[in-house]
Amino acid sequence: MPKLTVEGVGTFEVPAGKRLVNALVDECGVDQLHACGGVARCTTCRVEFVAGEPAAMAKAERDVLTAKGISGQKGLRLSCQITCDGDMTVKATSRLAGSGRIDAGKRPADSIEPPAEWV
Q1: Structural domain includes residue 16
Q2: CATH number of the domain residue 75 falls in
Q3: Which value, to the nearest 10 degrees, does the dihedral of the CA atoms of residues 65, 70, 71, 74 take?
Q4: What CA–CA distances, in Å, run from 118 to 5, 55, 82, 114?
Q5: What does the angle CA 51 – CA 34 – CA 92 come to, to the nearest 5 degrees?
Q6: In a domain, 107, yes or no
Q7: Phi/psi at 92 (nearest 5 deg)?
Q8: CA-to-CA distance for 16 and 42, rounded, in angstroms?
Q9: Are residues 78 and 64 in contact, defined by beta-carbon separation less than 8 angstroms?
Q10: How many domains is the chain built from?
Q11: In this structure, is residue 96 part of a structural domain?
């Protein structure tokens, strides 16, 4: 099982292939935002990778990061578009606490949405 380290929270074993956004909530207890429900539209699920950033990126993730003007920022990724396939260390920078939102968003599906086209 991959290990997911969340800076300031701890290190957790997570099921291989689980979406990072759901692992942050389920295994790590992080109040991770995902306002659009995990379909790569809003960027509220963003995390900052410290180590273990996946090389592959879904086209939907690339497109929304570009549209929002935040592509190319080192380590900045959308947790809804990443699966836990290896050990990772992230900073959970987009959380419900302090956001002013009433909830984190609809729970994302178990598989990546929209279906990933890897670039």
Answers
A1: yes
A2: 3.10.20.30
A3: -130
A4: 25, 10, 11, 11
A5: 30
A6: no
A7: -85, 95
A8: 25
A9: yes
A10: 1
A11: no
Torsion sign across C-alpha atoms 107, 102, 66, 24: negative
Instruction: Go through 54-77 and write b for each residue having 16 or more CB atoms within 10 A of its CB, e for each that does not.
Output: beebbebbbebbeeeeeeeeeebb
- Can you tell me which residue has the tokens 């990772």? 88
Does the pTM of the predicted model rise above 0.85?
yes
**Chain segment 15-48, per-residue pLDDT in tens:** 999 999 999 999 999 999 999 999 999 999 999 9
**What is the span of the domain harbouring residue 68?**
3-91
Residue 100 lies in a domain: no
- Scanning the structure block, which residue is given the tokens 């929002």? 68
Please give the structure tokens belonging to residue 77: 């990724």
Instruction: Please report the beta strands in the chain, taking only residues with DSSP state E, as ranges in sequence order.
Output: 3-6, 10-13, 46-51, 76-78, 88-91
Rg of the chain on CA atoms, in Å = 13
Contact 85, 17 (CB under 8 A): yes
